[in-house]
Amino acid sequence: MSEYVFTPAPRPAAPVEGGGLFPLRRIFCVGQNYAAHAREMGGDPTREPPFFFSKPADALVIDGGGAPYPSRTTNLHHEIELVVALQKGGANIPAAQALDHVYGYAAGLDLTRRDLQAEARKTGKPWDLSKGFDFSAPLGLIHPAAKIGHPARGRIFLQVNGAVKQDGDLSDLIWSVPEIIAALSTYVALAPGDLIFSGTPSGVGPLERGDVLVGEIEGVGEVRTRIV
Ligand code: MN
Asked: Rounded mean pLDDT of the chain?
């Protein structure tokens, strides 16, 4: 029997409201899923097929922990998002059955090195490291769907130092949660423990060290972090 050549890192996990830990597998994210944000990013807010990117699972920041201002950027941006936590996997999941795969929901932040992303977009290069870096995914408590249901509407907003910067409604999602799961599962076989960040409303903007972020999604919960 083979043994690890060094001790493996513990599996990332996210606390569930009411107790327990959600064992994390992967973090997927949807790009430009609110029309007003697609427009502010220079995109076309029509129902083009959704596009996806990912973050490492250990980018998660939990329990209101601080997120260090990352290296290699001078334009770190906030994106408040509804996060979907999967308890069941599969490929080619029909939208009509997609919600059976959902364990619960959380509020999360898709922190973004906007300057690196803009450069990657301009030069046609991958934007992985503009999105997937250490501490780039602060996450609030996961609230089981068994308790809160499957929210399809409700205010989603983010305050930075007490001022509202992003303000939208889940009903404005271009692609709904079932449609996101269905589309993503045509690219990869989804698995229990996967998280999906579902996109951000308009109002994204730069952060500075010391900023205090409080995001809230009506009917879901909160996410808090501080840029340190
Ligand atoms: Mn995002």
From this structure: 96
Per DSSP, the chain holds a count of helices (H) and strands (E) of 6, 16
pLDDT in tens, 168-220: 999 999 999 999 999 999 999 999 999 999 999 999 999 999 999 999 999 99
Backbone angles phi, psi at 76, to 5 degrees: -75, 125
Q: 32 alpha carbon to ligand 1 midpoint, in Å?
A: 7
DSSP string, 46-59: S-PPP-EEEE-GGG
Task: Please state the pTM of the whole predicted model.
Answer: 0.96
**88 touches 192 (CB < 8 A):** yes
Instruction: List the one residue out of 30, 20, 37, 63 whose CA is nearest residue 166.
Output: 37
Domain ranges for the chain: 13-227
Whether the pLDDT of residue 93 is over 70: the answer is yes
Kindly give the distance from the C-alpha atom of residue 2 to the centroid of ligand 1, in angstroms, as a whole number: 40
Q: What is the CATH number of domain 13-227?
A: 3.90.850.10
